[in-house]
Amino acid sequence: MTAVLRGIRAAIIDLDGTMLDTMGDFVVALTAMRAELGLGPVSAAQVEPMVGKGSENLVRRVLALDYDAAGVERLFAQAMDSYQRHYIAINGQHSEIYDEVEAGLQAMRAAGLRLACVTNKPLAFAQPLLALKGLAGYFEVLYGGDSFEKKKPHPMPLLKACEFFGLAPAQVVAIGDSSNDAEAARAAGCPVLTVPYGYNHGVGIHETDSDGIVDTLLFAAELIAQAN
Ligand SMILES: O=C(O)COP(=O)(O)O
Ligand SMILES: [Mg+2]
Questions:
Q1: Which of 11, 20, 135, 136 could staple 131 via S-S, CB 3.0–4.6 A?
Q2: Which pTM does this prediction carry?
Q3: How far is CA 31 from the centre of its chain?
Q4: 162 forms bridges with which residues in the sheet?
Q5: 66 and 164: one domain?
Q6: Ligand 1 binding pocket includes 52 (Cβ within 6 Å)
Q7: Ligand 1 and 28: CB distance under 6 A
Q8: 177 known member of a binding site
């Protein structure tokens, strides 16, 4: 695992399911949206496999619990507006930092790594959330799911982060909780580590092709430091 981590100068870190357990925020905002449409609540178990491919996909999949494809499209704009309104109102209030995230980020910075956060969450949600949780200061750059034309699993946001750093993809490790992160990293040519505790579309993280599974961001920092 450590061979690909040799020469790493920067890390691109995912947000939902990697640094923050945001499932509570998703459930509260989606349930409020559904109430406006006269629909019943959703549970974390229902929402978890739907998270990871951005807000539009999430809202469509939650509508699809009750509507066929035509119904989903008919209600989409109204539902999206409602979801965004409710999400921004409660953003971070039902979310927790995972264990050893801050220690991991501190250790990475202490080892001289430059840090980017690349999430599929819209930038308008991600920015205040990182600030609220005291994590914003660790990152030189933050890209959201709407920062570019393409979001993960497309490699574009990761390649943009490498470009921002002026580093080759092989010098930048991606760390995330889902196959989205791993596929984006592989396509970009970045080494990739995955965490086992987040949201991986209802599939075990062992099913996902990565350069290693790390229990926490602190363990990831230690591996990177050892390899360099
Ligand atoms: O909001 C999402 O769809 C997932 O966001 P992530 O890329 O930070 O996991
Ligand atoms: Mg994630």
A1: 136
A2: 0.96
A3: 21
A4: none
A5: no
A6: yes
A7: no
A8: yes
Task: Please indicate, yes or no, whether residues 146 and 55 belong to a single structural domain of this protein.
Answer: no
Residue 59: per-residue pLDDT: 97
CATH number of the structural domain spanning residue 133: 3.40.50.1000
Q: Looking at residue 1, what is its pLDDT?
A: 58
Does 75 have pLDDT greater than 70?
Answer: yes
Which tops the pLDDT comparison, 54 or 176? 176
**C-alpha span between 207 and 66 (Å, rounded):** 30
What average pLDDT score do residues 74-91 get? Answer: 98
Number of separate domains in the chain: 2
DSSP sequence for 17-86? TTTEE-HHHHHHHHHHHHHHTT-----HHHHGGGTTS-HHHHHHHHHTTTS-HHHHHHHHHHHHHHHHHH
| Tokens describing residue 106 | 């501190």
| Angstrom distance (rounded) from CA 47 to CA 103 | 29
| Dist. CA 101 → ligand 2 center (Å) | 14
